[in-house]
Amino acid sequence: MRKNLFTALFTFFCFSGFVFAQEQTGSLNSGTINSQFDYLNSISNNYQEYKVVKKAHLEKIRQNVTDSLNVFKDDLVTLKQDLKSRQADIAGLKEQMAALEEQLVSAEEARDSFTFLGLPVHKAAYNSFMWTLVAILLGAFLFFLFQYSQSHKVISKARKDLEETREEFDQHRKNTLDRERKLKRELVDALNQKTV
């Protein structure tokens, strides 16, 4: 029996301690503002439809709210300063980016152009000019090659005609010499026959 009484008392104290601990959870010294208001609501007395709050508790919650607001204000000031510094950093980075873009444009211009005979020339224009010049020179070379070929053909034909004319002339002279000799012989034979 004593054992049962001891067990019952132990259970009662444990259970009442647990209920008392649950009623007293929360405080005005720690926790969030919502949990402090909930705690203040739970420890306040009721009077008709109103809650009666002790002045000390009300001052404590006011001080806690004021402290929390001051912390938030300080955080807000810190965040604003951080935002300003980041905006200044962003502005500086934008200026650096603009300067780098200018340098990039000037580097691309320097890469894509050079001076030729003291004049700045873009590489694409120089390239097209040179290829046009090469095409013109190639066209002129082909034209003069064609002209040379044509004149070579004409000269070859003229040489061939000259050679044929020489051969004909030589043949004609030979024939003329043979006729002349024949005529002279005939004349000499005729004169010899007349004298005989």
Core attributes:
2 domains; two-stranded antiparallel ribbon; 196 residues; rod-shaped; 4 strands; 84% helix
Report on this model:
- The protein is 84% helix and 7% strand.
- With 196 residues, the protein is mainly α.
- α2 runs antiparallel to α3.
- It is rod-shaped, with a radius of gyration of 64 Å.
- The longest helix is centred in the last third of the chain and has 73 residues.
- It folds into 2 domains: 110 residues, no CATH class; 76 residues.
- About 5% of the residues have low confidence.
- It has 4 helices and 4 strands, in the order ααββαββα.
Number of helical segments?
Answer: 4
What is the makeup of the main sheet?
Answer: 2 strands, antiparallel
User: Percent range for helical residues?
Assistant: over 70%
Strand percentage lies at 5-15%
**Distance between termini?**
208 Å
Mean pLDDT: 84
Radius of gyration (CA) equals 64 Å
Strand order of the largest sheet: 1-2
Give the number of DSSP strands. Answer: 4
* Shape label: rod-shaped
Q: In brief, what are we looking at here?
A:
This protein is mainly alpha-helical and 196 residues long.
